Amino acid sequence: MQNHQPGSKVVITGLGTLTGAGIGVDDFWDNLCAGRSGIDRIKGFDIDPYPCQVGSEVKDFDPCDYMDRKEVNRNDRYTHYAMGAAKLALKDADLDTTKVVQERMGVIVGSGIGGIETVETQTQRLFNMGPRRVSPFMIPSLIANIASGVIAIEIKAKGPNFAVVSACTTGTHAIGEAMHVIKRGEADIMLAGGTEAAITKTGFAGFCAMRAMSTNFNDEPQRASRPFDEKRDGFVMGDGSGIVVLESEEHAKARGARIYCELVGYATTCDAHHITSPDLEGTGLANCLTNALNYSGVEATEVDYINAHGTSTPYNDRCESAAVKTVLGDHAYKIAMSSTKSMTGHLLGAAGGIEAAVCAKAIQTGIIPPTINYENPDPNCDLDYVPNKAKEATVNVALSNNLGFGGHNATVVLRRYPLN
């Protein structure tokens, strides 16, 4: 057992990304840097009746590659994705979980919506065949904490374990809270992030009814997600999971782990404004950014890159740009701020896990992925969004923002390790 002291540095040693833009961090990263979109016309069900007909579905994924077939049948697709991302993260970290102290390893993986596909299929069974035909696995399959529990059962992680449910800030909250678990000295290793499988008939119907999703690019799916572009008309939904391996610095160094970067800051606030619409002045997010920087000890002028929430909705992109300018001042115009949702779509509760991984890769590689489909500048969004083509830059400090229904804001701060 490591002689862990509270307050230890927390580092990222593994990245698990499972999205429509690629499975596994290498494939995913290559596609992002090349500006290749994972968005297409929905193929999982008859999309013709829906106003929005595009999304980023996970392709060529077999859950039996990551789980026992019996467990696959007992669990929802959102849990399949989480297990896939967790196994990919552990492989990337070169971490053998049979050789660690199980009581010092934990999991915090959440979902914004949980097992909505299970709700659909089991409700149909109830109405069509009666209550006796409902699966005994319905409840554990649909609840939003079960992915975290199933991962822990698989890898025998007996440390802190719970799920965060905070809409589109879920993944970021999970990573930040896992950082605090390690800093408190309660664990040496944490798997953290989010997972989502909301591309279903019900999921699409609900978001379409809200008029939240893009409808103007059904014939050109890969052009539909266009963060910060003046012609943006709504978000594009994505499925998948993003999970990172966090370790205390002592534990990572003791096992000779490759370290992507240090996780140095985290904050969360609430707009207290509206259940779905952000505060257009970005006050809540500005407070969140300020608190995250203060916690990390990073000056605003040290920030090199922001992976934006950047959903391609009229209000969100405007408010996020305003918040960044409020906090960073003139420095906001000197940094890169891209939205990889232009290629992955919006993975809702999984977005924060995916986008923290993007920040870690940007620090490691010195490449900043682009915001594709940026064609028509919006006067309210006047920062450097890395339009259409990746660029090379030294990234010592990166931020990842996420905002969620309910007015939630969350930011994590990642820094080069060691910082030379």
Automatic annotation (TrEMBL):
GO BP term, pick one: fatty acid biosynthetic process
Subcellular location: Cell inner membrane
Database matches in InterPro entries: 3-oxoacyl-ACP_synth-2, Beta-ketoacyl_synthase, Ketoacyl_synth_AS, Ketoacyl_synth_C, Ketoacyl_synth_N, PKS_Beta-ketoAc_synthase_dom, Thiolase-like
Cellular component aspect of the GO annotation: plasma membrane
Catalyses which reaction(s): a fatty acyl-[ACP] + malonyl-[ACP] + H(+) = a 3-oxoacyl-[ACP] + holo-[ACP] + CO2; (9Z)-hexadecenoyl-[ACP] + malonyl-[ACP] + H(+) = 3-oxo-(11Z)-octadecenoyl-[ACP] + holo-[ACP] + CO2
Pathway membership: Lipid metabolism; fatty acid biosynthesis
Record bears the keyword Ribosomal protein: no
Primary enzyme class: transferase
Family the UniProt entry places it in: Belongs to the thiolase-like superfamily. Beta-ketoacyl-ACP synthases family.
Function in brief: Proposed to synthesize NOD factor fatty acyl chain. Involved in the synthesis of a highly unsaturated fatty acid moiety, which forms part of a lipo-oligosaccharide that is responsible for host specificity.
Name of the protein in its database record: 3-oxoacyl-[acyl-carrier-protein] synthase 2
Organism of origin: Rubellicoccus peritrichatus
Name of encoding gene: fabF
